[in-house]
Specification:
The protein is of the alpha+beta class and 285 residues long. The chain has a single domain, classed as 2,3-Dihydroxybiphenyl 1,2-Dioxygenase, domain 1 (Roll). The chain contains five helices and 17 strands. It has a nine-stranded mixed β-sheet, covered by helices on one side. An eight-stranded mixed β-sheet has the order 2-3-4-1-14-17-16-15. A hairpin with a 3-residue loop joins strand 6 and strand 7.
Length: 285
């Protein structure tokens, strides 16, 4: 029996390749509400609380658009602590005229979707109280997409002006295009130790730690057998999974070694690629 990943495990940061750093920093500050923690050498680290890195932007002057029907980032999801925070973000985006890709009610959360200037998908969302999350007869969460009550949400915004993301904002989950669902399941469930919480036929899998609705979404919507994007494509370079302590970190590394995953390990970092080439850094809190 495989080791189940510790329930306190969370997503840490998302590192994106962009084509124009100044343009991307301006977008993430003015539209999303991040603060710049550090910016140098074609790289910027963004934060919500002034301390914790949440998004890393790295410019590649030779970057090309991510080709359609390739593996990689579908979207990364910014979790705000309260519904009113989501309402203020949505109101700010509507007032700015920035194009949205959609909005949805997933029962366990409410979400707004858009993309950055390079087309990297972004979700901003707020969770409903956990006691309201609905499950199926099999014990998995109901994975539904219903229209968002936009007027009801905006009514939560109040009169307080938008001032960016609140300090308790974090990366709630990452959603990836993958090439093969069977290999993906083996890696994320038997290797990393995440638990399956939503399965949509053979096309999508959502896994989590500690009974969350999902920390990682995985789909073959770009096509079964989809190739990896070019190395110089914009998109996801790496994202991190944060284990609560070194003991749990070592357990996950050991389990990945047991399934034959290729781990890059040095004094500072432990990085592993999933079967579709999506790169993950394993960190400790």
């Amino acid at each position: 029996m495989n080791h189940i990943i510790h329930p306190a495990t969370e997503i840490g940061y998302v590192h994106l390749i962009v084509s124009n750093l100044d343009r991307s920093v301006r977008f993430y500050k003015e539209m999303i509400g991040f603060h710049v923690l550090n910016k140098e050498n074609k790289k910027a680290i963004l934060t919500a609380d002034g301390v914790t890195p949440l998004v890393v932007l790295e410019e590649n002057a030779d970057a090309v658009p991510k080709p359609p029907r390739t593996t990689g980032l579908y979207h990364f999801a910014i979790l705000v602590p309260e519904r009113k925070n989501l309402a203020r973000s949505l109101l700010h985006l509507l007032k700015s005229g920035y194009p949205l890709h959609g909005a949805a009610d997933h029962l366990f959360s409410e979400a707004v979707y858009l993309a950055d200037p390079d087309g990297n998908g972004i979700e901003i969302y707020a969770d409903r109280p956990r006691e309201k999350w609905e499950k199926t007869e099999s014990g998995e969460y109901k994975g539904v997409t219903e229209p968002l009550d936009v007027n009801g949400l905006l009514a939560e915004a109040g009169n307080e002006p938008w001032s960016g993301l609140p300090e308790k904002t974090k990366i709630g989950h990452v959603h990836l295009h993958v090439a093969n669902m069977e290999e993906t399941y083996h890696f994320y469930v038997h290797g990393l130790g995440f638990e399956p919480v939503i399965r949509m036929n053979d096309h999508a899998l959502f896994v989590s730690a500690g009974g969350y609705h999902h920390h990682i979404g995985l789909n073959t919507w770009a096509g079964v057998g989809a190739p990896q994007p070019p190395e110089n494509a914009v998109g996801l370079r790496v994202f991190s999974i944060v284990l609560p302590n070194e003991e749990e970190w070592k357990k996950v590394i050991g389990q990945l070694q047991q399934i034959g995953a290729a781990i890059q390990h040095d004094e500072k970092r432990v990085v592993v690629n999933d079967p579709s080439g999506n790169q993950i850094e394993l960190q400790t809190a």
